[in-house]
Hints:
plastid; alpha/beta; six-stranded parallel β-sheet; plastid outer membrane
Amino acid sequence: MSRKQHIAIFTTATLPWMTGTAVNPLFRAAYLAKDGDRDVTLVVPWLSIKDQELVYPNNITFNSTSEHEGYVRHWLEARIDFQSRFNLKFYPAKFSTDKRSILAVGDITTTIPDEEADIAVLEEPEHLNWYHHGRRWKSKFRRVIGIIHTNYVEYVKREKNGKLLSPIVKHANTWVARIYCHKVIRLSAATQDFPRSVVCNVHGVNPKFLEIGKAKFAQLQKGELAFTKDAYYIGKMVWSKGYKELLHLLSKYEEELSDIKVDLYGSGEDSDQVQQAAKSLSLAVRVYPGCDHADPPFHDYKVFLNPSTTDVVCTTTAEALAMGKIVICANHPSNEFFKQFPNCYIYNDEYEFVKLTLKALAEKPSPLSDHLMHELSWEAATERFLNAAELNQVYPEKDPSFKHSISSSSSSSSLKSRKPRKNMEDASACLHQKISGIEAARRAFGAVPKSLKPDEQQCRELGLVLPTKKSSRKP
Length: 475
């Protein structure tokens, strides 16, 4: 007899941090639960106040998980036209200032009771498992799917000692994905290769962007002026997010691009430097703080400039296409999905970037077909996810090492051939378990200090069992 699937989606960030791993898993949970055929739980990090102040914009903080959940649901339901049906849970986490990332604390598999543990979706499985010390995902869940969001190897290459560190990060990513995931989905071929992986873009866009695009094309059909602004870029304001490449191009070709106005939107560690670099140009380049891409000021831009090659699949590129804009982006694996869109202009070199930018400003965007609008939607992304994750197939209960009698000699032979491979994987998982349980080793590999277990404050905030204090004996 078939039973309803329970899908637990674990991710590495949450609103109000407007990052891809906060927004995309949220929409994924909503759309997977939309028809009521599945029980879906989204599991997101909980930060104590001090860390919230470091991460969340505009001084937004939450005193309780219920307050935080209310914020997340209100944000989501303002953007979808149906009632969200998924559960929301929090796991303890801390913010790593040097990595600018949220890292899990303790064994986060415990957020899902054993009786509900069915399918786990790990958004950024490498990130979630670098320091994972707890139950093995494959033992607790019947099926574990990893989704690769971030090109960590490329980011590390751009840092100090990057050439030395990037092979280590690449090996660590492969290691934890192999031992903890049954299947890995890479959003594009821009990422490193992973064992048991497929390439498929399983992201969609906020429906509001498609509504904006429909309104713009209606204006164009009436002969109205739909776009009154030139070009812009939006993204986290760090050099590695495309700002370095864009400002280089604008600086090098100031004369050819002298008639255009470019606006940059973003907040981040390199904001001051980006503003200084923009001021040094003779072009009309203005810099603004980051804000929601769906806000009215963005509706009137005609061209989205995105030379970034560190993204896996750029969410803002998809959003710009949905809004009816022309996008200028590099011929790079991260942009492969967007090549099917007539408003996506792909350049191969700097000269072509200039040529296509001028062409885009002189032309009208092409209307999106119904098929292409569907391709950008979360309905289509959910279909792609279910197919890529193979969730419509029948899988064994929990770990594939389940005990069943196998009568046929061919099945017995197949099991024997898999056994050495599984033994190696089990040994590898055991090694990772031991290393991740040693505080000195964790610190050496970049874990947040004392993140092996939740501290007393986190336990109180999340309603967890308080850690027992060691009693001191008098001599």
